[in-house]
């Protein structure tokens, strides 16, 4: 089925679902019902009545009855004032509000409405003279389509969940019930999707984070502020160390910046005007300075670059800083490690000459390819461009040049890519890396951004070969992005079975009885002397011993539950034969003790 037909089918199912809800609850009031990835939803107000999952079968039964009736989707148009009167007569206050906004056309409605439902209205648009409705059976809805011809042209569907959602995303507005469904052309596609959902549920990083003792949260600390345990801290430190080593290989040097700054810094950079509402504000009791917790690091790095004269011979200048930033995200958008208020970035900034852009971009592309190749995630990139709005800083000619250079760099290294307008940072276009995990989901991870704006706003300069002062180009890059978000992806990608180099506990030694304790001492001495080389260089082996007076079966089960990648089982026969029994997910094998060090280094 084509994408257009699939979209129309899912859009039609949103209406069919709303029609079914209306049959069950005639006083239902409706918001919007757009198409989303894999399906659709509708925002519904039923007053005190709550839809439960136990009622999904009843709603689905009515939906199938509507489908069997082969109702035509009929489009009609009417003047906007007549539409407003319809909303009043039908007791649909949310539709009435939308129609009044469309009539006024003085505010931006597009951000509140799905384009498929209402179209786009922005500042300066003229008011609409008429709107369209679609009717199937007795159900009539404000909508611009598209739809299938009649309800019989529907594939397979399933209602999935119901959640609370504030009207138009504003917590000051009434809370509605958002009823979600999924839809596919065939039963086979639906079954495959449901299978992936079950896998995703088993791999949920929130579930595994607790089971593997990686992180916790506390209402006393605050929502969106995760606390990492010793095991979780090892994991985040190891992946950050790998990112640092990759970047240092390409000439990046570590810097450090404070966690608070005067608001003047962000006013100069442009972040205050753009993201001021997302900043945590800090007041000084000693001065009148207005301060903020830093939400990003690039403005700070400009000041290190500006701290001394620079020549074209000094370029490029490359800084890296893995540090925690703070953003006042809406509480309703926070969840697990996906979105947090304290996010640690493996941030990098390059200050270079225009003729050095391509090489620097190539270096960063190579580093990203190596990192995600190491964790076995397939990459493609999104070239994120500006749109035609005025939401961006800088000359359009510079933007066009920057976008061309990014595209050229991606093409030269042979990366699969797609282009998307409106996804750029406000100061420049970017390359967003999209990584596919073990169950086929795509996640945005690393990013490379070209910036002609901040160097100009901060008056950065270097002397060129003719002795003239010239503004450098700035390149932003984060290979992991937010480490917290990366870990949520990494945990779910691996299902908690981390590769040996990243596992918080790499080896656990399990004894059969206490007659082998002296032999265990030999093994621990060997492990303590092993320096791991790839991909994080010079790490010591992270191991523990379990010498409790418990059965070996219980010890193995406990080590497996917390997903220890390598278990060394030691019994009297192993001691007698000078071997160790090594148990991994691939099976069990016996290794001579004098080969244990090389075995561990090659895992």
The SS-based structural class is: alpha+beta
Q: How far is it from the N-terminal to the C-terminal residue, by CA?
A: 45 Å
Radius of gyration, CA atoms, in whole angstroms: 29 Å
Strand order of the largest sheet: 11-15-16-23-20-19-17-18
Explain this structure:
Helix 1 crosses helix 2. Helix content is 35%, strand content 27%. The longest helix has 22 residues, at 3-24. Strand 17, helix 13 (396-412) and strand 18 form a beta-alpha-beta unit. Residues 106-125 have low confidence and may be disordered. With 603 residues, it is α+β, with helices and mostly antiparallel strands. It has an eight-stranded mixed sheet with strand order 11-15-16-23-20-19-17-18. The two termini are 45 Å apart.
Question: Can you summarize this structure?
Answer:
The chain is an alpha+beta fold.
Characteristic terms for this protein:
603 residues; alpha+beta; eight-stranded mixed beta sheet; five-stranded antiparallel beta sheet; 19 helices; 27% strand; globular
